[in-house]
Amino acid sequence: MTAAAPSWGEIEEFLKIDGWRQLPSAGHSSHVFFEKVLDDGRVLQTHVSHSRDKRPSPGRFSVILREQIEISREQFWTALRSGEAVDRPGAAEAEHPVEHEAWVVAVLAGQLHMSAGEIEALDRDAARRLVYDFWARPRD
Amino acid sequence: MDSTVSLRTHSFSQAKAQLSDVMSDVVRDHAPAVIERHGGKEAMLLLDTGLLESLLYRFAFSTKASVSDGEFVLRQPELGLVAGGETFDQALDELEELALSYAGQFFERCDFYRQTDRAGHLPYLLRLLLANSEERRELLVPKPEAATEST
Which of A58, B2, B99, B125 lies 20 to 30 A from B110 at CA? Predict the structure, then answer.
């Protein structure tokens, strides 16, 4: 996955163009929540970091597009350039990172002390195999 | 059919006068109770939190994780949340914070969300709010049974 992700500030700009409403903050949070009610009555929610200049990773941005904003990467950039809201229903974001059950990554990072880069290189089967092999090792 | 027929029911004024006894029945005997006012037009259910937790047990979380450009990314499908961090623990910290913020917003406008496709989030959010921080992290990233047995 090589396509660059926008900054949190650009994502916030997009959300305003696309008619999302900023929600009042509930207590202390390092994020700002936005909400959009679609014509079919469904309620979408997403959030941006207060660190507007920082960027989420490309993989995280893909997940945000697919699961929360429900548009493609192309539609995102087109709206940001044109200043016009996306025609919905939007297209599905095609790119997505390899996903594991969270406990698998918790073991790889926390108990096998693998780096983010090492984990990123694993497919689902290889990741699980490493965890099962680790559990099968004799303990002192 | 009166749906509260088998539950202990108190009027508001009766419950207010005997609150200690009412609470003892609910908490010690694990007996749910209904409190009504305005002739039953408004009613609320009192439930022992332990009993509620057992009722919510089946609302399990199935959080997914990925890594992209050095960032750990957690996707929480039951609540529609996405969190990230430089380490897995930082991503989980953020997921917990987002879940609590969302819970605050949800219950602030519960009447609205109950009428939307987000109504199903309610039991998951209740389950998180009933837990302490350590329990909450284990709920969000549950161990598989094999791991529980091996540790």
Answer: B2
Residues A71 and A120 both lie in one domain: no
Q: Which two tokens stand for residue B72?
A: 């750990």
Query: In chain B, positions 35-94, which contact chain A (CB-CB < 8 Å)?
Result: 62-75, 77, 80, 82, 84, 86-89, 92, 94
CA–CA distance, B119 with B76 (Å, rounded to integer): 16
Please determine, for the modelled complex, whether the ipTM score is greater than 0.90.
yes
Summarize pLDDT for A72-106 with one digit per residue, the tens.
999 999 999 999 999 988 777 777 789 999 999 99
Residues in chain A with CB shorter than 8 Å from the CB of B66 are 59, 63, 97-100, 105, 120
User: Sheet containing B8-11: which strands, arranged edge to edge?
Assistant: B8-11, B33-37, B42-46
Other beta carbons within 10 angstroms of residue B13's beta carbon come to 10
- Tell me chain B's radius of gyration from C-alpha atoms: 19
Domains and CATH numbers, chain B: 8-48 (3.40.1620.10), 64-142 (3.30.160.620)
CB A81 within 8 A of CB A100: no
The string of pLDDT tens digits covering residues A115-140 is: 999 999 999 999 999 999 999 988 76
Please say whether the beta carbons of A64 and A48 come within 8 A.
Answer: no
Does residue A90 fall inside a structural domain? no
SS3 B11: strand
